[in-house]
Amino acid sequence: MFYVRVLSGYEERRIRSYRLQAQQRLQQAQERKAEIKKVPEQIILSEVRRMVEEMQALNKKLDETEAAIDEYFKPIDKEAEIIMKVQLEGEEKTMKEMMKAMQTQALLEAAEAEKNGGLQNADTDQHNQEKTSISKHTEVR
User: Fold this and answer.
1) pTM of the predicted protein model
2) Quick check: is 138 in a domain?
3) Using 50, 70 and 90 to split pLDDT, how confident is the model at 27?
4) 129 part of a folded domain
5) Which segments does the entry list as coiled coil (predicted)?
């Protein structure tokens, strides 16, 4: 019977069919193996995506918290700015007063120097007149 099957080509077709099925199974096994190899990559990628999403959520919360802090400190910043302005205006006023005082002092010193200079000239004139009069008195004798 085997001989009839070989001559009719039945066994050859059966062998080819078996070989084709084995090849298909082998190819499917290789595809499953490749998919299994991709699974860790997919797991890693999904984990990375999840971590990125968490980081973005944290960044968003951080931005919101910073905005809330800025809003909370806004009145304090305004008060600090007002205090700084008042202090600067006070310092500016003090400097202006000091400048006026220095100018007044300089004018007083200049007037006093002029007065002293005038007195010295008067003293010198008076001293010269006395010398002249003494000289005239000595000549007359």
Assistant:
1) 0.39
2) no
3) very high
4) yes
5) 19-68
Q: Which amino acid, residue 39? A: V
CA dihedral over 110, 111, 116, 119, signed as positive or negative: positive
Helix, strand and coil percent figures for the chain, each rounded to 5:
100, 0, 0
Phi, psi of 9 (to 5 degrees): 90, 0
Domain-located, residue 140: no
Residue of 126, 131, 85 whose CA lies nearest to 139? 131
Q: Which of 26, 6, 25, 3 is nearest to 14 (CA)?
A: 6
| In the chain, alpha helices (H) | 2-8, 10-140
Q: pLDDT class for 117, splitting at 50, 70, 90? A: confident
Do 17 and 10 form a contact (C-beta atoms < 8 A)? no
Q: Burial code of 106-131, b = ≥16 C-beta within 10 A, e = fewer?
A: eeeeeeeeeeeeeeeeeeeeeeeeee
Q: Which structural domain, as residue segments, surrounds residue 107?
A: 2-133
